[in-house]
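Pair request: fold both.
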Amino acid sequence: MNKALRQKKIRELVENNDVSGQQELLGMLEKEGFSVAQPTLSRDFAEMGIVRNRTADGGYRLSVPEEPQEDILRGLVGMEVLSITANETSIIINTLPGRAHGVGSFLDRINSPEILGTIAGDDTVLVIPATIRKISSVKSYIQKILSQP
């Protein structure tokens, strides 16, 4: 099952229904044709920032943070990047010490079809593009989303 599609459905269900918890959401997902294990749903909640809030009547309701939070996160991640360089096969992002994992994770969560994945060390992220023919455009895309010159 496609993670992005699953998370899109989770967002839709949580935003459009009064969902009180994970078990209720698991049932709703099942009715929509998504077979999801509880640990997977927990990871999705963490990645998406879904929280459980108390309602006025004393119950609980799941909620998804607004999208502008993504813009704030993008700005913060961008401040951790020192440089972005590329050769004919890969892209390297140099970060502040200890920040490479966060930058790599941010890029992975974007789910861009142009990026196969990232490998992060302490202060360096290796970006693996979907094709080496588009290295320049992938580098430009990363610079744009991280607001780098």
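--- second member of the pair ---
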Amino acid sequence: MPLLLTGRTFRRDLEAHGCLAVHAPLEGGAETRLLRRLRGAGYRTRLWSARGLGDPEVFLTQKHGIRPPHLGHQSVGRGAAVGEVQEVVPQLGDLLDGDAQVALWLLEGQVLSQSELRSLCDLCSREPRLRIIVEMGGARSLRWQPMSGLLAS
């Protein structure tokens, strides 16, 4: 990776395609460097792991219920038949307030299924301010491609 990465080409590709698949060096550093460049360009950014994401669209944009771990305790007579359900706010709710562009970087995106990746692309097309970068694995140097191109192959 070059010593100085301006991120201009990355930002142009991100704005053109909306959802990118990234292969980053395993030693790290590329994601924070590019996120810093995006923040400098006016984006509001968030970095998350894709593990445990569930339904991406509901998790990111809608109020939804979660079931906390039971930790060996029984919940007889409390809550629903499926156990206690807690309501949580959408994870991108505070970022989508206002007019600023939003960039979401998902780590460990290789655990997501094809349909989940496709729903992330659809979410980017429905919400014009949202840009999603999914880290799909490691590589010796930083490279990226449109998510639609990855799903087509």
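Observation on the second member. The mean pLDDT is 84.
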